[in-house]
Amino acid sequence: MPKAKPSLLSSFNNRLDLVKPSAIRAFDNEVSAIPDILKLTLGEPDFNVPEHIKAAAIHSITANDSHYSASNGTIALRKAAANFLADRYQLDYHAENEIIVTVGATEAIYTVLTSLLNVGDKVLLPTPIFPLYIPVTIVGGGEPVFIDTSTNNFVLSPEMLTAAIAEHGDKIKAIVLNFPSNPTGVTYTADEIKALADVLRDTNIVVISDEIYSELTYDEKHVSMAQYLPEQTILLNGVSKSHAMTGYRIGFLAGPAELVAKLGLIHQFTITTATNSAMAAAAEALSTEAGRQDTLDMKKAYQARRDFVYQTMISLGFVVPKPAGAFYIFAKIPAGYLQDDVAFARDLAQKDKLAVVPGSAFGPGGEGYIRISYAASMAQLKEAMARLSAYMAR
């Protein structure tokens, strides 16, 4: 096997030295070696892709749909995405020039931040938050600015936002809002979104609104930031969570045409275009009544799982904000147990073979918490709660 020339190790972007591997993946890899481990670590839906969606992908292949698509995605999928946003959230985007199909929402995150950032720019990140935004900001030359929301039930308040803007001023290029939230499952009401929009409206801050879990809200209908601040919002969404299509890697971003044109440059030179058969499947998922029903069926199952895990953990003494969306429980470790969340999660995995994610992986405010993904079968969740109960009893 070849061995790198030692002097080449100093050739890389020096900002990579500031980036650490994903703490979620690292912990998942660590505990995977434990025999009979039951993992509730990754946000991976346990459902299979519905048959009619798979059939659309197969038809694309057998019809020899094997040539380059338009860089921004097939017009069929962009129209499906535009109609989906209009139907579900009353948003008006033109398929031709205001939507880009991305390789998952992760590529959308990379495309937006890479397009926006110059060295020294700052990005506001309300935490705890999905950690991917942090390294992408750093590698892009930006500086993450964390706003700990744990003191406000994991909701960014207008007062917190105003204070951050006053402190960091014109260096703030963007703010990331992820709701329903990974890791907390907390989401925002229409009034809360409107209040944040009122603060941001008189700034030049771009709002990166990651709404990938928008279809998985349980108690109230999801309200998009783009409804109140469309002129400076880049909306991210996709089919990974709503239709259990994580492996198909199809997301999309939407925004004003002038901004999307700039984003299209980085997108084009990074991935050229998404895969045709996957785009055909996503168009089927977003444009058909069957696709809508798929999500409703999955959401009903997730809600039953949420209620079971939530009630069990409350009975064990955990303090848990009741998730209003997504498929995560973010639970504060009770007093009297290991308060170091990494030590707690490691001890739980080693002693009772249950793997959860330490809350500190999600930034300030996550310390002393654990995240559980309930995107698993009810049988697995019952076994998981039995193992957790046994651990807590000791």
What does this structure look like?
It contains twelve helices and twelve strands. With 394 residues, it is α/β, with parallel strands linked by helices. It starts with 22 loop residues before the first helix and ends with a helix. The mean pLDDT is 97. It holds the Pfam family Aminotran_1_2. InterPro entries: Aminotransferase_I/II_large, AspAT/PAT-like, NHTrfase_class1_PyrdxlP-BS, PyrdxlP-dep_Trfase, PyrdxlP-dep_Trfase_major, PyrdxlP-dep_Trfase_small. Residues 36-388 form the Aminotransferase class I/classII large domain.
Mean pLDDT value: 97
Count of distinct structural domains? 2
The strand count comes to: 12
The CATH superfamily label of the largest domain reads Type I PLP-dependent aspartate aminotransferase-like (Major domain)
Biggest sheet record: 7 strands, mixed
Question: What fraction strand?
Answer: 5-15%
- Spatial strand arrangement across the major sheet: 2-8-7-6-5-3-4
Q: Estimate percent helicity.
A: 40-55%
Shape: globular
